[in-house]
Amino acid sequence: MRWSFVWLGITVARLARADVQLAWHAPAACPDGAAMRAAILQHVEDPVDQIELAVTVEVVVAPEGFVAHVTTADETRELASASCSELAEAVAVVVARAAVDRHVAPPVTVPVIAVPVVRVAAPVPIVRPAAWNAGVRVAALAGNGFSPELGVAGEVAAWVSYHRFDVELGGSRWAATTADVGSNAGVEVGLSALALRLGWAPAERVRAWVVGELGAQHGTGVGFSGSSEGSGRWVAAGGGAGLVWPLAPHVAAVAAGELEVAIERTDFAVSGMTVYEAPRLAERVRLGVELRWR
Known about the structure:
This protein is mainly β. The chain has two domains: 2-101, Double Stranded RNA Binding Domain (2-Layer Sandwich), CATH 3.30.160; 134-292, Porin (Beta Barrel), CATH 2.40.160. Helix content is 15%, strand content 56%. The chain has helices at 2-16, 33-42, 84-101, and strands at 19-25, 52-62, 65-71, 76-81, 132-144, 151-162, 165-182, 185-203, 206-222, 229-248, 251-264, 267-270, 273-277, 281-292. The relative contact order is 0.12. Mean pLDDT is 80; it is low at 1-17.
């Protein structure tokens, strides 16, 4: 182990003599300049007596994530990644290779000692997402089981999250469709409901949740000698999953699907004959846009 520490000391001393003039400009969510310099020197696998390299790196936020413009005296390169930490690692590799190419003296030969060496990597700060977040969503729904025919609806929801868990309250209104009974008569049935969702994010862009929904079904008779109206309670519970795709800072597209079991539903009848009762299972899909605080 004593020789291992000697070998580590020689490696650190050689890296200290490397001179990379780094101008690093990046958003607060990215590693800082000191961390980037340490990461660059870490990737100089064959250190030289002297390195003379001036490099400027500009990192900007783009729809696909982050884009870095790496400029040296010889060229300008562009790198992109959805994660700023992954982008910073790629920039460190590119700059380290350019630094080795600009050496002005041959490498110093150091005797190799046949002893296992433990290399300690320079720590790179980990940028963790903020614990709290919140947002609102507007979406279009389509599904079966909420009205007699394939139905469409609009939804507005608000949510708040802590780490990977979130709670959401959303309101939806389904357009009425008709349950026909023949002779141009039938019952138009619609639904208005509030849904409470408790969810979690098993992956960066994936969400899953359980949902409970409370609302009212409204029915209006059409084509009968006397007009009739009625309403009843709707209670359902189930679960769903969805994807979130960032479009811009604080804006994302959402796509999801849900399956519910109707616990309480209304039986619409005319002259004692049942015209429509919602099925036990109801399913829907959602497409929308989300505005987020972070």
